[in-house]
Amino acid sequence: MRERASRGRKRKREERARAAQALPLDTSAAADRARALALTPVSRETLERLDRFVALLLEWQQRTNLIAPSTVPYLWTRHIADSLQLLALAPDARAWVDLGSGGGFPGLVIACALAGTPGAHVHLIESHGKKAAFLREAQRLTGSPASVEAMRIEEFVKTFEGLVDVITARAVSPLKPLFQQTFPLLGKSGAIALFPKGQHAELELREARESPTAQAWAMDATLVPSRTDPAGRIVVIRNVECRGTTP
């Protein structure tokens, strides 16, 4: 009986998500979606997965704060396209780790785009219980190649032993503490890091490299202009080394 009730609840959630997807977009939302797709074109199959994801996110957003309410009208450009643009910076990557996935950005969006790619997988790291539950439901509904690890970033990077091509983190922390969090994984895996940042990206890099304390960071870093934010930069990191006390 419990199993039948559980199937019934899942069916109702799927029906609500499909119904939300079928509703006509208002003019501003449709325009935002069109702008996002012009910036970061995707296949028809990927778009269908993203539409299901967005419908589910908007449903959950009514009771769980997955994204800032002020960004809801610009969800497609501010969050979807902002996530999709990372794929062009690592076109051959298959194994992704997304730290602090939150509402699914960029990790779940990237997983939606990689669903047809053999061997692709995205690890979504999120310690917040409700957000992790949302990510599991979004992964199931979209059929994307992702898994949710409900744990703190520090715990994951110290224990994970799988292959990693790319590490992402969006709106998690400034670069210096982010390097401290990710170094156990980034320093040993040979992966590249893609960290979307705002207008202070250069300052954050300088603070990480020129720390007045015993711990500073050496790396190969490139700043790539964001397609979605004129002031934004994507910090591309390779070959990170800790100069000083190892974290």
Question: What does the secondary structure layout of this molecule look like, with pairings?
Answer:
Blueprint: H1 2-22, H2 27-39, H3 44-61, H4 75-84, E1 95-99, H5 107-113, E2 121-125, H6 129-142, E3 146-149, H7 153-159, E4 166-169, H8 175-189, E5 192-197, H9 201-209, E6 216-225, E7 233-243
Parallel strand pairs: 1-2, 1-4, 2-3, 4-5
Antiparallel strand pairs: 5-7, 6-7
Task: Provide keyphrases for this structure.
single chain; 247 residues; alpha/beta; Rossmann fold; seven-stranded mixed beta sheet; 9 helices; 7 strands; 46% helix; globular
How would you describe this protein?
The protein is an alpha/beta fold and 247 residues long. It has a single domain, classed as Rossmann fold (3-Layer(aba) Sandwich), CATH 3.40.50.150. It has a seven-stranded mixed beta sheet, with helices on both faces. Helix 6 links the parallel strand 2 and strand 3. Helix 1 packs across helix 3 and helix 8 packs across helix 9. The longest helix has 21 residues. The N and C termini lie far apart (51 Å). About 4% of the residues have low confidence.
Radius of gyration: 18 Å
Mean pLDDT: 89
CATH homologous superfamily, by name? Vaccinia Virus protein VP39
Structural class: alpha/beta
Describe the structure concisely.
By secondary structure, the chain is of the alpha/beta class. The chain has helices spanning 2-22, 27-39, 44-61, 75-84, 107-113, 129-142, 153-159, 175-189, 201-209; strands at residues 95-99, 121-125, 146-149, 166-169, 192-197, 216-225, 233-243. The chain is built from 9 helices and 7 strands; from the N terminus they run H-H-H-H-E-H-E-H-E-H-E-H-E-H-E-E.
